[in-house]
Structure formats: structure tokens, C-alpha cells
Amino acid sequence: MLATRRTLRYLRLPKQLSPLLNSQFQFCHLHTTFPTRSKDPSAPPPSSPPTLLAPPTIVIKPPIEEYVRQIREQYGNYLPAGLLEENEYKLYERYYGRPTRLLQTGETIVREDNLFPPPETPAVEALYAQVARRLSPHEWAQKEEEDDLDDHFVTGSPRLFHTHPLTSVSRFGTFPSTIALPRKVEGETETLIVDVAPQQLVDSAHNTLGGPHLQFSPIYSHKRSKRALDIPLNPTNPHMSNIDADVYLSAVMPGLYAQCLSSLTELRRRLGSDWVLGGDGDEKGVKNVLDVGSGGAGILAWRSIIEAEEERRRDELEERTDWGAPPAAKEGSGLRAVVVTAPDALRGKASRLLDNTTFITRMPDVNFENLFHTPGVDTEKNKAQPRKLYDLIIASNRLLPIVKRFYRRQIIDQLWSHLNPNGGVLLMIEKGTPMGFEAIAGARSTILKNYLQDVGEAFQSRATTNADGSTSDRTTKGPGAIIAPCTNHEQCPLFIHGATDGTQRKDYCRFSQRFRRPQYLQKIAKRSSNNTEDIEYSYVAFRRGTDHRADTKNKISPTKEDFSTTPVDGGAGTEIEGPYTMAQLRNHTLTLPRIVLAPLKRPGHIIMDVCTPEGMLERWTVPRSLGKVEYRDARKSRWGDLWALGAKTRVRRNIKVGSENNRSLSKLIAIRDPYDGGVRAIVKDKTTAYLKSKKKQAKEDRKVERLERKQEAIEKHAEMIKMHKERKLREKGLRKEGDRQTHAEKVRISRERRRKEQEWDM
């Protein structure tokens, strides 16, 4: 029987039987014994003689080469486990290589036939262009939010990865993409404002923050507030009433929380989990946090990061052990939080939202011993009570309200002097407006020039000349680097021309974050139909004492081919295998270009505006012909992502920063720098002296205008008189000429008459 099976297998099939074998045939095994042979031999024999069974159905297999080819055509790159025998599997590998995945029992294959749609007609492309003009980038992001869960997995197939690992590790933003206040904070805020009449709260918010749009709010960054610098509700200002504190908690705090959480999430992605909670390596975790300018929103966001990391570690421990989850750590693994809040009213209300938090009324003075501190060297003179250094400082809206440049420099010195020189992180956030970006860009240039070493010739400090003619040495700078969003340490390509008045600037670096408005903010904003809002902000984060550019151990140059998907033996999933560790991949992302605007997704190609590690602003095009993985990941890319898969076309992008010749129609005052002639600051002055001087200037302008009109009228009148005299003279001359002609005609007629009379007499 075995010989018969082997003979039938290699039998050449006739042509009339070949159509019966298609790709959907079934297989069954040919047994050499009857079913009764498999029973217990000790069982008694049957009373009646056994009935002869019909011979089993024989399914004829084609030759082994034809059979393997049919299996390949039916299943493609995937292969059901156990379908092929050993010799058949060897022939399969010799012809087609190893299968991408071994399908287990119950698994199905989902083919994405519409991944690359056919080219559209001109009419359809015109319709797409019309819809794209009407939709904002945030609406496009909301439309693509439904595909977040499909970025990595295929429905019906567990852990079948599509996104390239270099793309996954370079993502920007939170997941889910819409941020909401913690339920505890939202409920406590409702309790704090329950004693205030709703209409009184709404009216106070509109009067303080500029109407229902809240355009003077530090989180509002749309067209109406692009020129505004003043922040009415500032936690560092001691003058704030109880109703103002309620307005701050209800109208400003949710947006500040979203800004801080979005930027802190990006820091967590770039620095890793050990930076947050500590680990076995050099990272000791963040223990001391200082929040300046947000009234506690930064501490709330950081505690959300800690809770997420602790939950992730508990889940990983549960997967590795059978002992269950470990006990939860108390107060964020020993976190010591400090919030700078000057107003008494806001400090009392914010303490209800933040437990185990220290509130101070002002920022500590500059710690000159730590301003240019070398890592690893103890320079603290007061050993009994040393000054506190912070592992993380979150500074929100600290630079924008300040007018003069040297005042901003003092704020930067304060923040830098209290930063831990052994790995401390300074995060600075401003409004996503042209002026907010210029404040961040100016702070970036100041820190690179004065505090960080080996950052290029553009930021090398110069030797200064003293009053007596002597020359002081250059400032000793320490190690450090920019963590986000920049991946270059050169001059910002959008800030090459320096500060402007901001009214004509079109291109500036900012990022977007969507958050859900609580119910009380819905009433203040008077937007009952939509409870989400998109805010834009500019930020920069530095790490002091640690420079990832000098980390030669984790420096790699990966390619797309370094990563492969292999099936898991005995499992139903796949694993992404690569030769690099997560620390190496994180260090590599700090050298990638970042998408600084929403990608333009066109049929067949994607256009991305990126800021390169060389300090250039370029426009990259990723067409479908570049590769299937590159094209799909480019279509899934978003504003703020780092891009690791290259492009086919790269061109320099023109930058629109405005022109000094363009007349500004705003009420802002540009303060010029007397040394270089550039704009030093832009202020919105509303003092009494300014209003009086403006009124006096307007009066003088009106007087000059009246004199000009009067002089113009006099000149016009004199011109008219002159023209009238000339006309009179011309008329008089014509009359004289006419009189002479008339007299000559009369003389001629008289002479003619006398001549005729003489002829008649003769």
C-alpha cells in the first residue's frame, strides 16, 4: 500500500484530470489499516463477522514540483504549518526561500489589495484639491486618527507588523492623540468653582482673556493672537483675585496640561523609561521637578508620565513572573515636586489638585556656583544646607511677556543655574505664535552660545575686553545637547535673520496637540457642538551634563534591510528581529530629520517639509516608486515625526520671515537694538504715558495735515488766478487783432466806393 501511494504520487496525470485539481483542493491521509485495528486488543471479538468496508477515497497528488508550485500560488509568502512534508518543505525553500510566516490553525490571510489605489482622473484630483483647501491640518489629523490601531497590526492576525521599526521608534505625539484632564483633577476643579455663578465665571473669563475665543490666553495661538505678547493670568504675578484664579483653573489649566504632556511624552520617547523611573544603568530617574509658569500643570503632566511608566513596568513583570503585580510605588517613586506660584488665591486652589507638592512664591536667585558647573566636580560652598538642584525644570510662558533681551537672559541664567549638571533636563514652552517661536529660538541660541560646548563655530563665545583694556578668557562651557525637537546644534534655519516684529512671518517652528475641553470650559468657550480643541506651541528641551553625540557605544547607522520579520516557533505571532538595542535606536533617532509641518499627501507621492540634522530646511518627496514600506510609512507620517526612511527628491525650501519694508498695521512697538539695528523686542504698551504721547503725536499729525491741505489750496488758488489772467490777456489780444482787421476792411470798402463814384461821374 505504501508503494502504491508513492507510485500514485509521482504519476503523470492525464490532461482530462488536470482541471479537477485547482488551488482549493483538500487533502486526506491514506490509512493502511482498517479502523478496527486501532481498537483495544483485549476487547472481545464481534459476534458477527466483520463487514467489509468500502475502500477509502484516494486523492491523487500531482508531482512534488507541481504541488509545491500550487501551494505557493495559493498561499503566497505565507505557509500553513504542517502542510508540507520534510522533502516538500526543502524543495519549497530551495525554490522560494523561507516563508514569511507559518500560519497556525484558525488564522486567515487578509490581503490589502487597495493599499496602492490606481491613478485618479483629473476630475477626482480636482475634487481632492478642493476638499484639501477646505480642511485644516487638524481636521486631516482627526480624519486619520481612526487608523491609529491599524498602523502596526492586521485584523485577524495577531502581531503582524506593517510599520517599519525605525518609523515606529520615531513617532511623535501621544496615544491616543486627544489628551484629556485626569478625572480626579477635573472633578476637583468642578468642586473649586461650584461656589461661583456660571455667568460670572464666563463674563470674567471673557473680560480677562479677550472674549469667547480666549485670544489672550497663553494656550491660544490662532490668527487673533499672533501679535499678542501680554499674558493676563500669569502664575508668577502676585496680583490675582479669587475669580481670576477660578478662571485660570477652568480656562487655562487644561491647555497647559496638554502642552506639557505632549512635550514630556516626546522627551520620554527620546530618553527612555529609565530616565523617568531609574534603572540598572547610569540613569537614576527624575527625583526633583520644578514647575515655573504653569501653576502646577507641568507637575500634573509629569505624574501622568510616571503613572503610565509604572503601569507598563507592572505589566512587563506580570508577563515575566507568576507572582502577580508588585505593590504600587508611593508618590511617583519618591518624586519631590516644587511649583512657583506667586498669587495666594491660586496657590490655595492649586494645592487642592496637587498632593505632596511644595509651593514657593518666586523663582530662586541665580546660583552662580552652579551656572558654569563642571559635571562630577563639587563646587557647593554651603555643605550644611546646599541649594536644591532639579532633575527636570518645566518653564512655561516665561520668556514671551518679557520685553528686553537682558531680562530674558536673566531668566535663562536662573533656570540653568538650578538644573542638575549631571543629566538635568530643561524644558521651555511658549505659545505657538511667531513671537513665541522667536522667544524659544532666542533662548536656544543663548544656551548653545554660552553654556554648551562643541556646538559649532556659530556659537563659540568670544573673549571680552574689560574697561582697563585687559582681555578675559572665554567662558568655560560644559557638555550637553538638545533633546527635542531639534536634531541639529547649528543656527536654527528659521532664525537665521534674527528677531522680527512677527507680523509678516509665515514660517515658524511649532507643534500641534489636541485636547478635550471639560464641561466647564465648554461653557466658557461657548462651543457646545465640539468638545475638542487644537493648540499649537513651540518648545525646546536641553540636557545638561550628557551629550548623546559623544556616545560612541550606541552610535549606529541602521538601514531598512537590517530588520526582518520571522515567525515564532510554536506561536501564532511574529517577531521583529534586529541587531540593535532600544538604547541604540533611541540614540539614532536624535540624528534624524524632523517633519516641521503637516505632510502633503498626494496621489502617488507625499511631500514633507523637514528640518535636517545639518541645520537646513528642505522639502522631501517620497513617491510610490521609492518602495512599498517607505510609501506606506510616509502616508502614515504626521506633523512632528522623525523620518528615517529617506526620500527620492530633496530640495531647499524657501523661508518666509517677512520684510522690514512691509508696513505693520498692528499696535505693537518694535524696540530696536542700538548696536546691530535689529529688532530687540516687541511690546504692546498700554500705559498712560504711551497713550498721551500717542494722542499728542496724532494731534501733531492732524495739524501738519491741515497745514499741508491749506498750502495746497493756496497754491491751487494762485495757479487758477494765473490761468485766469493769461486767458484775459489772450482775449484782449484777440479783440485788438479783430479791431485792426475791421478798420482795414472799412478803409478798403471806403476806397472802393470812392473809386466807383468817380467812374460814374466820368
Characterise the protein shown here.
- This protein is of the alpha/beta class.
- The protein has 4 domains: 2-34 and 55-103, no CATH class; 137-168 and 564-644, no CATH class; 178-320 and 329-377 and 388-461 and 476-550, no CATH class; 693-762.
- It is built from 20 helices and 20 strands.
- It has helices spanning 2-9, 64-75, 86-96, 122-134, 137-144, 165-168, 183-192, 198-209, 242-271, 273-277, 297-320, 331-334, 344-353, 368-371, 405-417, 434-450, 519-525, 582-589, 628-635, 688-761, and strands at residues 78-80, 101-103, 178-179, 288-292, 336-340, 357-360, 392-396, 425-431, 480-484, 511-516, 532-544, 564-567, 574-577, 594-595, 600-602, 605-611, 617-623, 649-652, 669-672, 679-683.
- Strands 3, 4, 5, 6, 7, 8, 9, 10 and 11 form a 9-stranded mixed β-sheet that branches. Strands 14, 15, 16, 17 and 18 form a 5-stranded antiparallel β-sheet that branches. A two-stranded parallel sheet has the order 1-2.
- Helix 9 packs across helix 11 (297-320) and helix 9 (242-271) crosses helix 13 (344-353).
- Residues 1-43, 46-53, 112-117, 146-161, 327-332, 568-575, 659-668 and 673-677 have low confidence and may be disordered.
